[in-house]
Amino acid sequence: DPALLAQAAGAAAPADLDAYWMPFTANRQFKQAPRLLARADGMHYWTPEGRQVLDGVAGLWCVNAGHARPKIVRAIAEQAAEMDFAPPFNMGHPKAFELAEKLVQITPAGLDKVFYTNSGSEAVETALKMAIGYHRARGEGTRTRLIGRERGYHGVNFGGVSVGGIAGNRKTFGPLLGGVDHLRHTHDLARNRHVRGVPEHGAELADDLERIVALHDASTIAAVIVEPVAGSTGVLLPPKGYLERLRAICDKHGILLIFDEVITGFGRLGAPFAADYFGVTPDLMTVAKGITNGSVPMGAVFAKSFIHDAFMNGPEHLIEFPHGYTYSAHPLACAAALGTLETYADDGLLTRGADMARPFEDALHALEGLPHVLDVRNIGLVGAIELEPIPGQPAKRAFDVFLECWRRGVLVRVTGDIIALSPPLIVETSHIEQIAGTIGEVLKAQA
Ligand code: PLP
Protein backbone atom coordinates (compact mmCIF):
# COMPACT_ATOMS: atom_id res chain seq x y z
CA ASP A 1 0.00 0.00 0.00
CA PRO A 2 1.77 3.20 -1.15
CA ALA A 3 0.12 5.31 1.57
CA LEU A 4 1.35 3.00 4.32
CA LEU A 5 4.81 2.87 2.79
CA ALA A 6 4.94 6.65 2.63
CA GLN A 7 3.83 6.84 6.25
CA ALA A 8 6.48 4.34 7.34
CA ALA A 9 9.16 6.16 5.40
CA GLY A 10 7.98 9.50 6.81
CA ALA A 11 8.44 8.19 10.32
CA ALA A 12 12.11 7.68 9.48
CA ALA A 13 12.74 11.37 8.74
CA PRO A 14 15.27 12.69 11.28
CA ALA A 15 14.29 15.37 13.80
CA ASP A 16 17.72 16.95 13.92
CA LEU A 17 20.33 17.28 11.20
CA ASP A 18 23.00 18.93 13.31
CA ALA A 19 25.40 16.18 14.41
CA TYR A 20 26.05 14.52 11.05
CA TRP A 21 29.00 16.16 9.26
CA MET A 22 28.24 15.08 5.70
CA PRO A 23 30.91 13.97 3.18
CA PHE A 24 31.52 15.91 -0.06
CA THR A 25 28.43 17.96 0.72
CA ALA A 26 27.61 21.65 1.00
CA ASN A 27 26.54 21.00 4.61
CA ARG A 28 25.03 24.41 5.30
CA GLN A 29 23.05 24.50 2.07
CA PHE A 30 21.84 20.92 2.60
CA LYS A 31 20.67 21.47 6.14
CA GLN A 32 18.57 24.45 5.10
CA ALA A 33 16.67 22.31 2.59
CA PRO A 34 17.50 18.64 3.14
CA ARG A 35 17.18 16.11 0.35
CA LEU A 36 16.40 12.82 2.01
CA LEU A 37 16.04 9.35 0.56
CA ALA A 38 14.19 6.73 2.55
CA ARG A 39 13.52 3.76 0.29
CA ALA A 40 14.68 2.32 -3.03
CA ASP A 41 13.52 -0.29 -5.50
CA GLY A 42 14.57 -0.96 -9.10
CA MET A 43 15.12 2.33 -10.92
CA HIS A 44 13.65 4.50 -8.16
CA TYR A 45 14.13 6.15 -4.79
CA TRP A 46 11.37 7.45 -2.55
CA THR A 47 11.69 10.37 -0.15
CA PRO A 48 10.44 10.11 3.45
CA GLU A 49 7.23 11.80 2.24
CA GLY A 50 6.78 9.09 -0.37
CA ARG A 51 7.74 11.14 -3.43
CA GLN A 52 9.21 8.98 -6.21
CA VAL A 53 12.58 9.96 -7.71
CA LEU A 54 14.09 8.31 -10.79
CA ASP A 55 17.70 7.31 -10.19
CA GLY A 56 19.74 8.73 -13.07
CA VAL A 57 23.08 7.95 -11.44
CA ALA A 58 22.84 4.43 -9.97
CA GLY A 59 23.09 5.92 -6.49
CA LEU A 60 26.68 7.07 -6.90
CA TRP A 61 27.74 5.10 -9.98
CA CYS A 62 27.36 1.88 -8.03
CA VAL A 63 23.86 0.35 -8.08
CA ASN A 64 24.35 -1.19 -11.52
CA ALA A 65 21.60 -3.82 -11.20
CA GLY A 66 19.07 -1.40 -9.76
CA HIS A 67 17.93 -1.24 -6.15
CA ALA A 68 16.77 -3.96 -3.75
CA ARG A 69 17.52 -6.92 -6.01
CA PRO A 70 16.15 -10.03 -4.26
CA LYS A 71 19.22 -12.29 -4.63
CA ILE A 72 21.46 -9.64 -3.11
CA VAL A 73 19.04 -8.81 -0.28
CA ARG A 74 18.67 -12.50 0.56
CA ALA A 75 22.42 -13.19 0.42
CA ILE A 76 23.15 -10.39 2.89
CA ALA A 77 20.36 -11.38 5.29
CA GLU A 78 21.33 -15.06 5.29
CA GLN A 79 25.01 -14.31 5.76
CA ALA A 80 24.32 -11.94 8.67
CA ALA A 81 22.49 -14.76 10.46
CA GLU A 82 25.05 -17.44 9.58
CA MET A 83 28.34 -15.69 10.36
CA ASP A 84 28.70 -11.96 10.99
CA PHE A 85 32.47 -11.67 10.85
CA ALA A 86 35.57 -13.74 10.35
CA PRO A 87 39.12 -12.45 10.88
CA PRO A 88 40.83 -12.08 7.49
CA PHE A 89 44.46 -12.25 8.71
CA ASN A 90 45.82 -15.80 8.71
CA MET A 91 42.20 -17.02 8.63
CA GLY A 92 39.64 -17.32 5.85
CA HIS A 93 36.04 -18.19 5.11
CA PRO A 94 34.67 -20.14 2.14
CA LYS A 95 32.79 -17.31 0.42
CA ALA A 96 35.93 -15.17 0.14
CA PHE A 97 37.58 -17.90 -1.95
CA GLU A 98 34.42 -18.71 -3.91
CA LEU A 99 33.97 -15.06 -4.80
CA ALA A 100 37.60 -14.65 -5.86
CA GLU A 101 37.30 -17.63 -8.23
CA LYS A 102 34.10 -16.21 -9.73
CA LEU A 103 35.53 -12.72 -10.08
CA VAL A 104 38.65 -13.81 -11.96
CA GLN A 105 36.43 -15.65 -14.42
CA ILE A 106 34.89 -12.34 -15.52
CA THR A 107 37.95 -10.08 -15.33
CA PRO A 108 40.16 -9.59 -18.39
CA ALA A 109 42.57 -12.47 -19.04
CA GLY A 110 45.67 -12.34 -16.87
CA LEU A 111 44.15 -10.47 -13.92
CA ASP A 112 44.00 -13.65 -11.87
CA LYS A 113 44.58 -12.58 -8.26
CA VAL A 114 42.16 -10.63 -6.06
CA PHE A 115 42.94 -8.57 -2.95
CA TYR A 116 39.87 -7.33 -1.06
CA THR A 117 39.38 -3.84 0.37
CA ASN A 118 36.33 -1.91 1.57
CA SER A 119 36.18 0.98 -0.85
CA GLY A 120 37.61 2.39 -4.02
CA SER A 121 39.95 4.63 -2.06
CA GLU A 122 41.39 1.63 -0.24
CA ALA A 123 41.69 -0.30 -3.49
CA VAL A 124 43.78 2.54 -4.91
CA GLU A 125 46.11 2.67 -1.88
CA THR A 126 46.47 -1.10 -2.11
CA ALA A 127 47.32 -1.03 -5.82
CA LEU A 128 49.91 1.74 -5.36
CA LYS A 129 51.57 -0.19 -2.52
CA MET A 130 51.51 -3.41 -4.56
CA ALA A 131 53.24 -1.62 -7.43
CA ILE A 132 56.04 -0.24 -5.27
CA GLY A 133 56.38 -3.50 -3.32
CA TYR A 134 56.52 -5.51 -6.52
CA HIS A 135 59.52 -3.64 -7.88
CA ARG A 136 61.31 -3.89 -4.53
CA ALA A 137 60.57 -7.62 -4.26
CA ARG A 138 62.34 -8.26 -7.54
CA GLY A 139 65.31 -6.11 -6.64
CA GLU A 140 64.43 -2.76 -8.23
CA GLY A 141 63.69 -0.81 -5.07
CA THR A 142 64.45 2.52 -6.76
CA ARG A 143 61.15 2.31 -8.64
CA THR A 144 58.94 4.22 -6.20
CA ARG A 145 57.61 7.10 -8.27
CA LEU A 146 53.89 7.13 -9.08
CA ILE A 147 52.38 8.85 -12.10
CA GLY A 148 48.77 10.02 -12.09
CA ARG A 149 46.89 12.37 -14.37
CA GLU A 150 45.39 15.84 -14.13
CA ARG A 151 41.66 15.69 -13.40
CA GLY A 152 42.02 12.09 -12.20
CA TYR A 153 40.03 10.95 -9.18
CA HIS A 154 41.35 8.04 -7.17
CA GLY A 155 39.51 8.45 -3.90
CA VAL A 156 40.42 10.51 -0.89
CA ASN A 157 43.27 8.79 0.96
CA PHE A 158 46.74 10.30 0.80
CA GLY A 159 48.04 8.11 -2.04
CA GLY A 160 44.90 8.54 -4.11
CA VAL A 161 44.80 12.30 -3.61
CA SER A 162 48.51 12.51 -4.45
CA VAL A 163 48.13 10.77 -7.81
CA GLY A 164 44.74 12.42 -8.30
CA GLY A 165 44.45 15.65 -10.20
CA ILE A 166 41.70 17.71 -8.60
CA ALA A 167 43.01 20.92 -7.05
CA GLY A 168 40.05 21.24 -4.71
CA ASN A 169 40.79 17.86 -3.17
CA ARG A 170 44.55 18.48 -2.89
CA LYS A 171 45.18 22.05 -1.80
CA THR A 172 43.83 21.71 1.74
CA PHE A 173 45.93 18.76 2.79
CA GLY A 174 49.57 19.76 2.69
CA PRO A 175 52.39 18.40 0.56
CA LEU A 176 50.83 14.95 -0.01
CA LEU A 177 53.09 12.12 -1.21
CA GLY A 178 56.47 13.03 -2.65
CA GLY A 179 57.71 11.40 -5.84
CA VAL A 180 54.51 11.85 -7.82
CA ASP A 181 54.07 13.36 -11.26
CA HIS A 182 51.07 13.83 -13.53
CA LEU A 183 50.17 13.35 -17.17
CA ARG A 184 48.00 16.04 -18.72
CA HIS A 185 44.30 15.28 -18.89
CA THR A 186 42.70 14.49 -22.24
CA HIS A 187 39.70 16.83 -22.17
CA ASP A 188 39.85 19.11 -25.20
CA LEU A 189 36.64 20.84 -26.23
CA ALA A 190 38.46 22.88 -28.87
CA ARG A 191 39.07 19.70 -30.88
CA ASN A 192 36.44 17.27 -29.59
CA ARG A 193 32.91 18.59 -29.09
CA HIS A 194 29.56 16.84 -29.00
CA VAL A 195 31.36 13.59 -29.72
CA ARG A 196 29.47 10.31 -29.64
CA GLY A 197 31.81 7.77 -28.04
CA VAL A 198 35.57 8.19 -27.92
CA PRO A 199 37.03 11.40 -29.36
CA GLU A 200 39.22 11.45 -32.44
CA HIS A 201 41.95 13.80 -31.22
CA GLY A 202 44.46 13.51 -28.41
CA ALA A 203 46.18 10.10 -28.49
CA GLU A 204 49.50 11.96 -28.53
CA LEU A 205 48.82 13.13 -24.96
CA ALA A 206 49.95 9.66 -23.87
CA ASP A 207 53.45 10.72 -24.95
CA ASP A 208 53.54 12.85 -21.79
CA LEU A 209 54.70 9.62 -20.19
CA GLU A 210 57.81 9.64 -22.39
CA ARG A 211 58.51 13.22 -21.30
CA ILE A 212 58.14 12.20 -17.63
CA VAL A 213 60.42 9.19 -18.16
CA ALA A 214 63.00 11.47 -19.78
CA LEU A 215 62.85 13.78 -16.77
CA HIS A 216 62.92 11.26 -13.91
CA ASP A 217 64.34 8.13 -15.60
CA ALA A 218 62.35 4.90 -15.86
CA SER A 219 64.41 3.34 -13.06
CA THR A 220 62.58 5.62 -10.56
CA ILE A 221 59.03 4.98 -11.81
CA ALA A 222 56.84 2.23 -10.34
CA ALA A 223 53.47 2.74 -11.97
CA VAL A 224 51.04 4.90 -13.90
CA ILE A 225 47.45 5.07 -12.70
CA VAL A 226 44.55 6.34 -14.81
CA GLU A 227 40.82 5.94 -14.99
CA PRO A 228 40.15 4.53 -18.49
CA VAL A 229 37.20 6.97 -18.54
CA ALA A 230 37.55 9.68 -15.89
CA GLY A 231 34.20 9.73 -14.09
CA SER A 232 34.24 12.08 -11.14
CA THR A 233 35.70 15.07 -12.98
CA GLY A 234 32.93 14.96 -15.52
CA VAL A 235 33.18 11.93 -17.81
CA LEU A 236 36.40 12.59 -19.72
CA LEU A 237 36.90 10.04 -22.48
CA PRO A 238 40.21 8.61 -23.68
CA PRO A 239 40.98 9.70 -27.24
CA LYS A 240 41.12 6.97 -29.85
CA GLY A 241 44.39 5.04 -29.41
CA TYR A 242 45.38 6.82 -26.17
CA LEU A 243 45.17 3.86 -23.80
CA GLU A 244 46.99 1.59 -26.27
CA ARG A 245 49.80 4.13 -26.46
CA LEU A 246 50.02 4.42 -22.67
CA ARG A 247 50.20 0.62 -22.45
CA ALA A 248 53.00 0.49 -25.03
CA ILE A 249 55.08 3.15 -23.28
CA CYS A 250 54.65 1.40 -19.92
CA ASP A 251 55.82 -1.88 -21.48
CA LYS A 252 58.80 -0.21 -23.09
CA HIS A 253 60.02 1.15 -19.74
CA GLY A 254 59.01 -1.60 -17.32
CA ILE A 255 56.36 0.60 -15.68
CA LEU A 256 53.20 -1.03 -14.29
CA LEU A 257 49.90 0.22 -15.68
CA ILE A 258 47.02 0.54 -13.21
CA PHE A 259 43.46 1.07 -14.40
CA ASP A 260 41.16 2.52 -11.79
CA GLU A 261 37.87 0.89 -12.80
CA VAL A 262 35.90 1.86 -9.71
CA ILE A 263 33.29 3.46 -11.98
CA THR A 264 33.88 1.69 -15.30
CA GLY A 265 33.94 -1.83 -13.82
CA PHE A 266 30.97 -4.20 -13.88
CA GLY A 267 29.26 -3.29 -17.10
CA ARG A 268 29.15 0.51 -17.05
CA LEU A 269 30.55 0.84 -20.61
CA GLY A 270 28.59 -2.10 -22.03
CA ALA A 271 31.47 -4.55 -21.53
CA PRO A 272 32.37 -6.19 -18.21
CA PHE A 273 35.32 -3.82 -17.71
CA ALA A 274 36.76 -0.83 -19.57
CA ALA A 275 39.82 -2.99 -20.21
CA ASP A 276 37.54 -5.27 -22.27
CA TYR A 277 35.86 -2.35 -23.99
CA PHE A 278 39.15 -0.79 -25.10
CA GLY A 279 41.07 -4.05 -25.55
CA VAL A 280 43.86 -2.82 -23.27
CA THR A 281 44.74 -4.88 -20.20
CA PRO A 282 46.41 -3.21 -17.22
CA ASP A 283 48.73 -4.95 -14.75
CA LEU A 284 46.61 -3.93 -11.78
CA MET A 285 42.94 -2.98 -11.77
CA THR A 286 40.99 -1.38 -8.93
CA VAL A 287 37.24 -1.82 -8.49
CA ALA A 288 34.57 -1.08 -5.87
CA LYS A 289 30.98 0.21 -6.19
CA GLY A 290 29.42 -2.28 -8.64
CA ILE A 291 31.20 -5.26 -7.06
CA THR A 292 28.35 -5.47 -4.52
CA ASN A 293 25.88 -3.35 -6.47
CA GLY A 294 26.53 -0.70 -3.82
CA SER A 295 24.82 -2.79 -1.16
CA VAL A 296 27.72 -3.44 1.23
CA PRO A 297 31.02 -1.55 1.15
CA MET A 298 33.65 -3.46 -0.79
CA GLY A 299 36.55 -2.80 -3.13
CA ALA A 300 39.18 -5.01 -4.70
CA VAL A 301 42.45 -4.97 -6.59
CA PHE A 302 42.99 -7.45 -9.40
CA ALA A 303 46.62 -8.25 -10.09
CA LYS A 304 48.40 -10.17 -12.79
CA SER A 305 50.01 -13.32 -11.43
CA PHE A 306 53.57 -12.11 -12.00
CA ILE A 307 52.96 -9.29 -9.50
CA HIS A 308 51.52 -11.63 -6.88
CA ASP A 309 54.23 -14.20 -7.49
CA ALA A 310 57.04 -11.70 -6.98
CA PHE A 311 55.94 -11.38 -3.34
CA MET A 312 55.82 -15.14 -2.75
CA ASN A 313 59.32 -15.65 -1.42
CA GLY A 314 61.08 -15.79 1.95
CA PRO A 315 60.17 -18.09 4.84
CA GLU A 316 56.71 -19.61 4.30
CA HIS A 317 55.39 -18.77 7.78
CA LEU A 318 55.98 -15.05 7.25
CA ILE A 319 53.52 -12.54 5.80
CA GLU A 320 54.51 -11.69 2.21
CA PHE A 321 52.57 -8.42 1.76
CA PRO A 322 52.18 -6.47 5.00
CA HIS A 323 48.88 -4.87 4.10
CA GLY A 324 45.14 -5.51 4.64
CA TYR A 325 42.08 -4.31 6.50
CA THR A 326 40.08 -5.71 9.42
CA TYR A 327 37.16 -5.82 7.03
CA SER A 328 38.95 -7.24 3.97
CA ALA A 329 36.73 -10.04 2.64
CA HIS A 330 33.99 -9.17 5.11
CA PRO A 331 31.46 -12.02 5.02
CA LEU A 332 28.51 -9.67 4.35
CA ALA A 333 30.37 -8.04 1.47
CA CYS A 334 31.40 -11.40 -0.01
CA ALA A 335 27.84 -12.68 0.21
CA ALA A 336 26.52 -9.48 -1.33
CA ALA A 337 29.06 -9.70 -4.15
CA LEU A 338 28.12 -13.32 -4.89
CA GLY A 339 24.44 -12.30 -5.05
CA THR A 340 25.44 -9.37 -7.26
CA LEU A 341 27.38 -11.50 -9.75
CA GLU A 342 24.42 -13.88 -9.97
CA THR A 343 22.06 -10.98 -10.60
CA TYR A 344 24.36 -9.53 -13.28
CA ALA A 345 24.49 -12.95 -14.96
CA ASP A 346 20.72 -13.55 -14.71
CA ASP A 347 19.96 -10.26 -16.46
CA GLY A 348 22.99 -10.10 -18.77
CA LEU A 349 23.86 -6.76 -17.21
CA LEU A 350 27.60 -6.81 -17.83
CA THR A 351 26.91 -6.27 -21.52
CA ARG A 352 23.41 -4.76 -21.50
CA GLY A 353 24.91 -1.28 -21.62
CA ALA A 354 25.97 -2.02 -25.19
CA ASP A 355 22.32 -2.43 -26.24
CA MET A 356 21.11 0.63 -24.36
CA ALA A 357 24.04 2.87 -25.32
CA ARG A 358 22.44 4.03 -28.57
CA PRO A 359 19.09 5.25 -27.19
CA PHE A 360 21.00 6.83 -24.28
CA GLU A 361 23.37 8.57 -26.71
CA ASP A 362 20.53 9.83 -28.91
CA ALA A 363 18.56 11.20 -25.97
CA LEU A 364 21.57 13.05 -24.55
CA HIS A 365 22.74 14.49 -27.86
CA ALA A 366 19.25 15.87 -28.46
CA LEU A 367 20.18 18.40 -25.73
CA GLU A 368 23.11 19.82 -27.73
CA GLY A 369 21.48 23.03 -28.87
CA LEU A 370 19.92 24.00 -25.53
CA PRO A 371 20.93 27.17 -23.67
CA HIS A 372 24.39 27.10 -22.04
CA VAL A 373 25.21 23.58 -23.24
CA LEU A 374 28.92 23.54 -24.13
CA ASP A 375 29.27 19.83 -24.76
CA VAL A 376 27.45 16.52 -24.68
CA ARG A 377 29.47 13.29 -24.53
CA ASN A 378 28.76 9.65 -23.80
CA ILE A 379 30.08 6.12 -23.76
CA GLY A 380 28.15 2.99 -22.80
CA LEU A 381 25.77 4.08 -20.06
CA VAL A 382 27.78 7.07 -18.92
CA GLY A 383 27.09 10.53 -20.19
CA ALA A 384 27.83 14.15 -19.45
CA ILE A 385 26.39 17.52 -20.30
CA GLU A 386 28.90 20.28 -19.78
CA LEU A 387 27.43 23.71 -19.14
CA GLU A 388 28.83 27.16 -19.54
CA PRO A 389 29.56 28.48 -16.04
CA ILE A 390 27.72 31.56 -14.77
CA PRO A 391 30.43 34.28 -14.89
CA GLY A 392 32.03 34.59 -11.44
CA GLN A 393 29.99 31.71 -10.00
CA PRO A 394 31.59 28.44 -11.04
CA ALA A 395 29.52 25.28 -10.42
CA LYS A 396 26.38 27.32 -9.65
CA ARG A 397 24.57 26.69 -12.92
CA ALA A 398 24.92 22.92 -12.73
CA PHE A 399 24.04 22.87 -9.03
CA ASP A 400 20.82 24.75 -9.80
CA VAL A 401 20.01 22.21 -12.52
CA PHE A 402 20.64 19.39 -10.04
CA LEU A 403 18.28 20.98 -7.49
CA GLU A 404 15.54 21.55 -10.04
CA CYS A 405 15.83 18.00 -11.46
CA TRP A 406 15.53 16.66 -7.92
CA ARG A 407 12.41 18.80 -7.43
CA ARG A 408 11.02 17.34 -10.66
CA GLY A 409 11.74 13.77 -9.60
CA VAL A 410 15.04 12.88 -11.28
CA LEU A 411 18.33 12.34 -9.46
CA VAL A 412 21.35 13.50 -11.46
CA ARG A 413 24.91 14.22 -10.33
CA VAL A 414 26.93 17.36 -10.87
CA THR A 415 30.62 18.00 -10.73
CA GLY A 416 31.67 21.58 -11.33
CA ASP A 417 29.45 22.73 -14.21
CA ILE A 418 29.09 19.24 -15.64
CA ILE A 419 25.97 17.09 -15.25
CA ALA A 420 26.99 13.42 -15.11
CA LEU A 421 24.60 10.56 -15.80
CA SER A 422 25.07 6.84 -15.12
CA PRO A 423 21.70 5.14 -14.73
CA PRO A 424 21.39 1.59 -13.41
CA LEU A 425 22.09 -0.88 -16.22
CA ILE A 426 18.47 -2.10 -16.05
CA VAL A 427 17.39 1.27 -17.47
CA GLU A 428 14.62 1.24 -20.11
CA THR A 429 14.06 3.71 -22.93
CA SER A 430 11.20 5.36 -21.02
CA HIS A 431 13.57 6.13 -18.11
CA ILE A 432 16.16 7.54 -20.48
CA GLU A 433 13.49 9.78 -22.01
CA GLN A 434 12.42 10.96 -18.57
CA ILE A 435 16.00 11.74 -17.50
CA ALA A 436 16.97 13.60 -20.67
CA GLY A 437 13.52 15.19 -20.99
CA THR A 438 13.66 16.58 -17.45
CA ILE A 439 17.17 17.97 -17.93
CA GLY A 440 16.05 19.57 -21.19
CA GLU A 441 13.02 21.24 -19.56
CA VAL A 442 15.13 22.49 -16.67
CA LEU A 443 17.80 23.93 -18.99
CA LYS A 444 15.12 25.75 -20.96
CA ALA A 445 13.39 27.01 -17.82
CA GLN A 446 16.66 28.32 -16.37
CA ALA A 447 17.90 29.97 -19.58
N1 PLP B 1 38.47 5.72 -7.93
C1 PLP B 1 37.54 6.15 -8.77
C2 PLP B 1 37.80 6.12 -10.23
C3 PLP B 1 36.32 6.62 -8.29
O1 PLP B 1 35.39 7.07 -9.15
C4 PLP B 1 36.07 6.60 -6.91
C5 PLP B 1 34.79 7.07 -6.37
O2 PLP B 1 33.97 7.63 -7.05
C6 PLP B 1 37.08 6.15 -6.06
C7 PLP B 1 38.27 5.70 -6.60
C8 PLP B 1 36.90 6.15 -4.58
O3 PLP B 1 36.01 5.18 -4.18
P1 PLP B 1 35.38 5.24 -2.71
O4 PLP B 1 34.52 6.45 -2.66
O5 PLP B 1 34.63 3.93 -2.61
O6 PLP B 1 36.51 5.29 -1.74
UniProtKB/TrEMBL annotation:
Molecular function as annotated in GO: adenosylmethionine-8-amino-7-oxononanoate transaminase activity; pyridoxal phosphate binding
Q: Does the keyword Phosphoprotein apply?
A: no
Q: Which UniProt keywords apply?
A: Aminotransferase, Pyridoxal phosphate, Transferase
Q: Which SUPFAM superfamilies does this chain map to?
A: PLP-dependent transferases
Pfam families in the record, alphabetically? Aminotran_3 (PF00202)
Domain of life where this protein originates: Bacteria
Q: Name one GO biological process term.
A: biotin biosynthetic process
The cofactor named in the record is: pyridoxal 5'-phosphate
PANTHER family registered for this protein in UniProt:
ADENOSYLMETHIONINE-8-AMINO-7-OXONONANOATE AMINOTRANSFERASE, BETA-ALANINE--PYRUVATE AMINOTRANSFERASE
Family per similarity comment:
Belongs to the class-III pyridoxal-phosphate-dependent aminotransferase family.
Name of protein: Aspartate aminotransferase family protein
Taxonomic lineage of the native organism: Bacteria, Pseudomonadati, Pseudomonadota, Betaproteobacteria, Burkholderiales
